[in-house]
Amino acid sequence: MQYTLLILVLPLLSFILLGLMDSKWKPKVAGYIGTSVLSIITALSYTTAFMYFTTAKLEGVYQQITPFNIEWLRFTDFLHINLGILLDPISVMMLVVITTVSLMVHIYSLSYMKGEWGFQRYYAFLSLFTFSMLGLVVATNIFQMYIFWELVGVSSYLLIGFYYTKPEAVSAAKKAFIVTRFADLGFLIGILILSFYTKTFDFATLTSGDVSVFASTAGVSFLGISVMSWALGLIFIGGAGKSAMFPLHIWLPDAMEGPTPVSALIHAATMVVAGVFLVARLFPVYFFYAPEVLHGIAYVGAFTALYAAAIACVQTDIKRVLAFSTISQIGFMMVGLGVSGYGGHEGLGYMASMFHLFTHAMFKALLFLGAGSVIHSVHSNEMSNMGGLRKHMPITNITFLVACLAIAGIPPFSGFFSKDEILAATFEFSPWLGAAMSLIAGLTAFYMFRLYYNIFWGKEHKHEHTPHESPKVITGPLSFLAILTLFIGWIPFGKLVTSDRAEYIIHLDPMIATVSVLVSVIFIVLATYMYKKDSFVPARLATTFAGLHKAASHRFYMDEVYMFVTKKIVFKHISTPIAWFDRHVIDATMNGFANTTQWISVKTRSFQSGQLQQYAFVFLLGTLLITAIVIFS
Amino acid sequence: MGDLFINLFSGPVPIEAYLGVSLIMFFAGVYGFLSRKSLIMILISVELMINAADINFVVFNRYLYPGQLEGFFFALFTIAIAACETAVAIAIIINIYRNLSNVDVENLNEMKE
Amino acid sequence: MAEQIIFYILAAIIAVFSILAVTSNRIIRSATYLLFVLLATAGLYVMLGFHYLMAVQIAVYAGGIMVLFIFAILLTNKPGEDLEPENKGKRILAAFLSLTGLAFCGHVIYYNVNKVYTLVIPAELKMQDIGHTLMGTEKYQYLLPFEIISILLLACIVGSLMIARKR
Question: Which of A130, A177, A577, A608 could form a disulfide with A157 if both were Cys (CB 3.0 to 4.6 A apart)?
Answer without folding.
Answer: A177
